[in-house]
Write a structure and sequence with these properties.
This protein is of the alpha/beta class. The protein folds into 3 domains: 168 residues, 3-Layer(aba) Sandwich (Rossmann fold), CATH 3.40.50; 268 residues, N-(1-d-carboxylethyl)-l-norvaline Dehydrogenase, domain 2 (Orthogonal Bundle), CATH 1.10.1040.10; 38 residues, 6-Phosphogluconate Dehydrogenase, domain 3 (Single alpha-helices involved in coiled-coils or other helix-helix interfaces, Up-down Bundle). It has 20 helices and 12 strands. A 7-stranded mixed beta sheet has the order 3-2-1-4-5-6-7, sandwiched between helices. α15 packs across α18. The longest helix has 34 residues. It starts with 14 loop residues before the first strand and ends in a 19-residue tail after the last strand. The chain binds 6-phosphogluconic acid. 6-phosphogluconic acid binds next to α8 and α12. GO terms for molecular function: NADP binding; phosphogluconate dehydrogenase (decarboxylating) activity. Pfam families: 6PGD, NAD_binding_2. Catalyzes the oxidative decarboxylation of 6-phosphogluconate to ribulose 5-phosphate and CO(2), with concomitant reduction of NADP to NADPH. InterPro entries: 6-PGluconate_DH-like_C_sf, 6PGD_dom2, 6PGDH_C, 6PGDH_Gnd/GntZ, 6PGDH_NADP-bd, 6PGdom_BS, NAD(P)-bd_dom_sf, Pgluconate_DH. Homodimer.
């Protein structure tokens, strides 16, 4: 610790927040509103002063000039929350902070950091006796102020000093905080990343529904606002459906047109969805619906290419196919069911990758508890999340299944939970009709169709992967397994095409036994 150099009260504040752009400022205010004394720091002092001037009456703030002052003002163990842009700025703040801290102090990164960075930082700070906690925070600016969903990782021990504070400022769902320690080192940021991957898919399927209702169903944005408002009373009820209705109802003041029609159709992204898709590939979890939603944003951004494509490429669609095959109400209900089923698949994929990552990184992730954190406060909050939580055995913050295992009774895949298997079975006819209609009409539905392909792939008796294995063996001697015998095998494709085992020993075919019905 450095000597005291200023007049800020020493050891008086419960938590320090550095980085006072909107998210940091709102989290700081949220802590203060819950009775905590919050020390404030920002690279430029003006933001600190502005926060105190505008919101000083909301609670107890200690304005500080430097990180040294911020640290001095904190009670022990010191809790310093960093809310700066992910990447190098986080490392820069950590480098300045570390020499000022003592063993047992806690550094919290509440930004959208990549989990590998968090793992690296956690290991580096642990060597110095410091706790580094990567915390996923969801809910946007409003959530940060009024109660976000909070997904803390880091050393479990740090949760004793930090958890109660985070739980207090988090959203509450039926009396339970949307906050719980999720696992060691980067687990918190990983869970938040997957939340964002699901968020991307959820937004994209809503977009696909809108596109179909517009281009095939002929419903204008204002009419669709009513449809989405009605859908919000069904099992689709969620924050994203609710705000979709509001966006679609919005009329542009300048032109009098629906706002959605004057917004450029190019979706931005800061990277968390892309990270989710990449990590899905890394841990071997087929998060195709999530990845498709990221690709859909990328494609939307290729505006120059799209412009040429519009002029150059044929549609191959006849006019008839561009009209809804059923009456409007039936079509709307079909689309609703397709949306629900596709959304469920995206959640199933997100949950599957969490389980795969737990095994890969040695985390003990409880899927029921993680789903419980998303029931309120976050962007994907939805009635469905309570049902998903139940499907994974409910919330139990003391349940820490060994990495790579599920707690007893948890389904291997979310879709296997009886209520979801049933719900999908009911939605299937509509889901298939909608994907078929979209394909015939030339309306792209990458996530609707990819989710359906995942579902069909999961439940297929036989996949063409057998043929792929044959091809791999042909050109690369990669070997294959057989359905009827243990071990790996290779066919001598460029030789006499007999089969050898993994050691290259010719396989002697068992002679067919007399009367064996499987043999000619
Ligand atoms: C949240 C949001 C938040 C966010 C991201 C995603 O959970 O509060 O996910 O983290 O809006 O920045 O934004 P992009 O769509 O720009 O990637």
């Amino acid at each position: 610790m450095t000597e005291q150099t200023t007049t800020v009260p020493v050891g008086a504040a419960d938590i320090g927040v550095t980085g006072l752009a909107v998210m940091g400022a709102n989290l700081a205010r949220n802590f203060a509103r819950h009775g905590y004394t919050v020390a404030l720091h920002n690279r430029s002092r003006a933001r600190t002063d502005q926060l105190v001037a505008e919101h000083g009456d909301e609670g107890a703030f200690v304005a500080t000039e430097t990180l040294a002052e911020l640290v001095q003002s904190l009670a022990v163990p010191r809790r310093v929350l960093i809310m700066v842009k992910a990447g190098a700025p986080v490392d820069a703040v950590i480098d300045q902070l570390v020499p000022l801290l003592d063993e047992g102090d806690i550094v919290i990164d509440a930004g959208n950091s990549h989990y590998e960075d968090t793992r690296r930082r956690e290991a580096a700070l642990a060597e110095k006796g410091l706790h580094f906690v990567g915390v996923g925070v969801s809910g946007g600016e409003e959530g940060a102020l009024h109660g976000p969903a909070i997904m803390p990782g880091g050393p479990e021990k740090s949760y004793e000093a930090l958890g109660p504070m985070l739980e207090k400022i988090s959203a509450q769902f039926e009396g339970e905080p949307c906050c719980a320690w999720v696992g060691t080192d980067g687990a918190g940021h990983y869970v938040k990343m997957v939340h964002n991957g699901i968020e991307y898919a959820d937004m994209q399927v809503i977009g696909e529904a809108y596109d179909l209702l517009r281009r095939v169903g002929g419903l204008e944005p204002a009419e669709q606002a009513e449809v989405f408002t009605a859908w919000n009373q069904t099992d689709l009820a969620s924050y994203l459906i609710e705000i979709t209705a509001e966006v679609l109802a919005q009329v542009d003041a300048a032109t009098g047109r629906p706002l959605v029609d004057v917004i450029v159709d190019e979706a931005g992204q800061k990277g968390t969805g892309r990270w989710t898709a990449i990590s899905g590939l890394d841990v071997g979890s087929p998060v195709a619906a999530i990845a498709e939603s990221v690709f859909a944003r990328s494609l939307s951004s290729q505006r120059a290419v799209r412009e040429v494509a519009r002029e150059t490429l044929a549609a191959g669609v006849d006019e008839e196919a561009q009209r809804a095959p059923q009456d409007t109400d039936t079509f709307v209900e079909d689309v609703r069911q397709a949306l629900f089923a596709s959304k469920l698949v995206a959640y199933a994929q997100g949950m599957d990758m969490l389980a795969a990552a737990a095994e890969e990184y040695g985390w003990s992730l409880d899927l029921g508890t993680i789903a419980s954190l998303w029931r309120d406060g976050c962007i994907i909050r939805a009635d469905l999340l309570d049902v998903i939580m139940q499907a994974f055995g409910g919330r139990d913050t003391s349940r820490h299944p060994a990495p790579g295992t599920r707690a007893p009774g948890q389904p291997l895949n979310l879709l296997f939970a009886p209520e979801f298997a049933q719900a999908i079975a009911e939605a299937l006819p509509a889901w298939r009709r909608v994907v078929g209609t979209a394909v015939a009409a030339g309306v792209p539905v990458p996530v609707f169709s990819s989710a359906l392909a995942y579902y069909d792939g999961l439940r297929a008796d036989r996949l063409p992967a057998a043929l792929v294995q044959g091809q791999r063996d042909y050109f690369g001697a990669h070997t294959y397994l057989r359905v009827d015998r243990e071990g790996s095998f290779h066919t001598l494709w460029s030789g006499d095409r007999t089969e050898v085992d993994g050691e290259g020993v010719p396989v002697v075919m068992p002679q067919p036994t007399e009367g064996d019905p499987t043999q000619d």
